[in-house]
């Protein structure tokens, strides 16, 4: 009898040691150039552009990483890292981003670095988490490509502000339509030869006629907002200065009802709702009046994507528990046993334009 008990205990002990370890929440890895991955990434980039009120639209350049998590009770969450590039279309420009030119290296390009979590449910993608920042190419790299190319200048530079105000005065003086006010200075470069200042800035139409304005402070923005985007060069000359300015005026934007939260949209446990973009700034004369906007660094040379929105800290995992970026649970791939170390698919993906 004692022998039987001993054999039974040894069998139990052997079974405990031979049992496979518990498998936690699993994710699957896709190729970074998989069509499904790219579809999720394009939804993420579209989300960036819809939340921009300053700066320039961005376009997808490269997908760095992707993990796909199952989500209860249904759907999957794409955890992604993507790189973007700034285009030449201003955030207020209604032109679809696919029709916008990418800003080239010689123009001092700007790159975005983003983390996203995108829910796919019933064939539809919804952004759950968004976190981005952006930075211009280094001065050294620009000068390697083009030694004579001007670099980005601080937007609050005295020369930059003067050039933008002088260019707007020139545009209004030659306009037969509405009087336009300054929204913001978006980009600037100090050109050494000939000594000049290049600026790009956004403007908004008012209810005043340009040639009849005597007091700009009495002009109000139109109810159906109409924006424009200007490019100007102020060239310094002996005894004066020359201003060359061109502006593209966009179609009016009708006032739409304030969107209400979609109570049917899936929101994971632990995730916070990303706030809507702030309204465009109101302006009086040449000065921008304070409106609800993120606090921006004073001595900046570009609009950093980090000020566009803030994301949630975590999203719901397959087990219903919040997971944090950086954990390394088991990976599951089709046809591969979870206990076997997986072979990672090709990532990062292809570069669509150029790498900074």
From TrEMBL:
Chief subcellular location: secreted
Q: Which UniProt keywords apply?
A: Disulfide bond, Glycoprotein, Phosphoprotein, Repeat, Secreted, Signal
Q: What is a GO molecular function of this protein?
A: cysteine-type endopeptidase inhibitor activity
Specify the signal sequence span. Answer: 1-18
Cellular localisation: Secreted
- State a single Pfam family of this protein: Cystatin
Q: Residue limits of the Cystatin fetuin-A-type domain?
A: 27-133, 144-255
A Gene Ontology cellular-component term: extracellular matrix
**UniProt keyword annotation of Signal present:** yes
Has the keyword NAD been applied to this entry? no
Q: What is this protein called?
A: Alpha-2-HS-glycoprotein
């Amino acid at each position: 009898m004692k022998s039987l008990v001993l054999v039974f205990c040894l069998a139990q002990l052997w079974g405990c040691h031979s049992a496979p370890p518990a498998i936690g929440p699993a994710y699957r890895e896709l190729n970074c150039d998989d069509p499904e991955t790219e579809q999720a990434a394009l939804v993420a980039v579209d989300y960036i552009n819809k939340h921009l009120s300053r700066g320039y639209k961005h376009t997808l350049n490269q997908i760095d990483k992707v993990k796909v998590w199952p989500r209860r009770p249904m759907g999957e969450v794409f955890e992604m890292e993507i790189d973007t590039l700034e285009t030449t279309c201003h955030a207020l420009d209604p032109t679809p981003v696919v029709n916008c030119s990418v800003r080239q290296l010689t123009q001092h390009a700007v790159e975005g670095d983003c983390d996203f979590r995108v829910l796919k449910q019933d064939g539809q993608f919804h952004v759950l988490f968004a976190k981005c920042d952006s930075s211009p190419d280094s001065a050294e790299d620009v000068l390697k490509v083009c030694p004579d190319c001007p670099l980005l200048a601080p937007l609050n530079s005295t020369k930059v502000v003067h050039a933008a105000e002088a260019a707007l005065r020139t545009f209004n003086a030659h306009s037969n339509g509405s009087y336009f006010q300054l929204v913001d200075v978006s980009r600037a470069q100090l050109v050494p030869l000939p000594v000049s200042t290049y600026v790009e800035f956004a403007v908004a139409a008012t209810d005043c006629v340009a040639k009849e304005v005597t007091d700009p402070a009495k002009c109000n923005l139109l109810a159906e907002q109409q924006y424009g985007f200007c490019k100007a060069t102020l060239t310094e000359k002996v005894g004066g200065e020359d201003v060359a300015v061109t502006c593209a005026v966009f179609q009016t934007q009708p006032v739409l009802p304030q969107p209400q939260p979609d109570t049917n949209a899936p929101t994971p446990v632990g995730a916070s709702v990303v706030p809507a973009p702030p309204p465009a700034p109101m302006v009086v004369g040449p000065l921008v009046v304070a409106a609800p906007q993120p606090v921006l660094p004073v001595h900046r040379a570009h609009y950093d994507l980090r000020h566009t929105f803030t994301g949630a800290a975590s999203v719901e995992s397959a087990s219903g528990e919040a997971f944090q970026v950086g954990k390394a649970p088991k990976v599951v791939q089709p046809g591969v046993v979870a206990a076997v170390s997986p072979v990672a698919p090709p990532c990062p993906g292809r570069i669509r334009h150029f790498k900074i």
